[in-house]
Amino acid sequence: MTVWMSALAFALFTAQVPPAPASDEGAALPLPIDAVSEMPAPEPEIVPEVALVPEPIAPTASTSTSTQTSAPISASTSTPASDSVSTSAFDFGALRVGGFARVGFSFVRDDPTVDFIGQSPGFEFAAARLELSARPFDKASVHLSIDAAARQAGASGSEEYRLAARDVFIEYAAFPALVARAGQFKAPFLAETLGCDADSLFLRNSIVERGLAPPVGYAANGLGLGRQLGVSISSERLDVFGGIGVRYEVGVFNGTGENALANDSGGGSLMPVARVELDYQRVARLGAAVAYGKRAQGTRPDQLDEENLSWTVDVSVSHHGVQLLAAYAQNHRSFASLTPVVPDEVSRGALAQISWRHPGTGLEPAYRFELLEPSDLVDDTRVMHHAIGLNWKPAWLPVRIYAAYTLRIEAEARGLTNDGVELGAQLGFF
């Protein structure tokens, strides 16, 4: 009887206690715009966007409530998120999970005189990306991107796949004009690099950014800086007047590339990089960037010090499904430690690409022109590529199908038979 009386008293007491007020601590936080570096947002079905033009991610800011707010120039950029992303099945409160996998098939014609050109058609993993983004507290975010299809030289001389970190950084958005970032992320340099990896128009970036290697062509370095370990400050898009906006990013990096364990730059120096963009009504954008760094090339103690001054300018347009990007980049390299003095070397590259996506079918014809001159000290090194592609990217599915033919043209003295075909399929989860 005592037990029953106690239970009845407890039930009456709890029935009179008002429910506790809702707490924000357990509620799902509003996601930062582009919380994860390489996870593009779901696209509207009316006029789907094409991510040919790089769309920098917006910082995590408590004041960011509109999807129209442009993001800062970011080394790990992607397209701005839409309101629908907040209800995604892969959003867990302050944690967002996503990624994509891309499988490709490449065929390069065998050159009749150069053994290492062609000879290796086959399938490949172009990307196998997992993206994580978390907001431990307001205005602060942590980003992690890993790739199971990263490449490294194997024991037999061919490339092998490995698991590697892509973007690993922390970010704090103090206010729209000041966003601080530290870790490994894309250096704010080439516009093509800053685009979302999952939204590439072709299976690979241009030779201006990544360079060349057998079996496609003679080995040559590209002009991209890729991902770097360092710190930067940037801004969101800041309105100026008359529909004109501006954004910037300034950073200091090791200058030794992705996943490098130490800074081996000449004299222990760091590499400063700066980029600024002006846009008109978020339709047309003009960008420029500059980078300076010293490198110690070779194996210790027999190393050569070199200085590199790089710059680039680009213009992009995005309007009614049409995407246009044109860019020029140049690097000036000097060898201060060599005796007798070696002439300075200039490398340059140019890129122009255009695409249009049909909003109903998702069909996307695309064309890309690539020009790379690895060195002005060596004759006949200029290479031109003309890539013609037809993709399928429906607005209602996280799928992209690639098909492209590339016409490759070298100088007559180093001419090759190396035109190629690339096919691919990508599936994302965002």
Question: How would you characterize this protein structure?
Answer:
This protein has helices spanning 2-16, 191-194, 207-210, and strands spanning 91-92, 95-108, 122-137, 140-153, 159-175, 178-186, 227-234, 238-241, 244-253, 271-280, 284-299, 302-319, 322-334, 345-356, 363-373, 383-392, 399-410, 420-429. The protein is mainly β and 430 residues long. The protein has one domain: Porin (Beta Barrel). It has a 16-stranded antiparallel β-barrel with strand order 2-3-4-5-6-7-9-10-11-12-13-14-15-16-17-18. The termini are far apart.
Quick summary:
5% of the residues lie in helices and 48% in strands.
Keywords:
disordered N terminus; mainly beta; Porin; 430 residues; 48% strand; 3 helices
The CATH topology is given as Porin
Output the number of helix runs.
3
- Whole-number mean pLDDT: 80
- What is the level 1 CATH name? Mainly Beta
Oligomer description? single chain
The helix-strand sequence is: HEEEEEEHHEEEEEEEEEEEE
- Outline, from the CA principal axes? globular
Helix-residue proportion:
under 10%
Spatial strand sequence of the major β-sheet: 2-3-4-5-6-7-9-10-11-12-13-14-15-16-17-18
Low-confidence stretches: 1-37, 41-72, 75-89
Query: How many beta-strand elements?
Result: 18
How far the N terminus sits from the C terminus, by CA atoms, comes to 58 Å
The structural domain count equals 1
CATH-scheme architecture? Beta Barrel
Question: How much β-strand is present in the residues?
Answer: over 45%
CATH homologous group name = Porin
Produce the secondary structure layout:
Layout (H helix, E strand, L loop, with lengths): L1 H15 L74 E2 L2 E14 L13 E16 L2 E14 L5 E17 L2 E9 L4 H4 L12 H4 L16 E8 L3 E4 L2 E10 L17 E10 L3 E16 L2 E18 L2 E13 L10 E12 L6 E11 L9 E10 L6 E12 L9 E10 L1
Antiparallel strand pairs: 1-2, 2-3, 2-18, 3-4, 4-5, 5-6, 6-7, 7-9, 8-9, 9-10, 10-11, 11-12, 12-13, 13-14, 14-15, 15-16, 16-17, 17-18
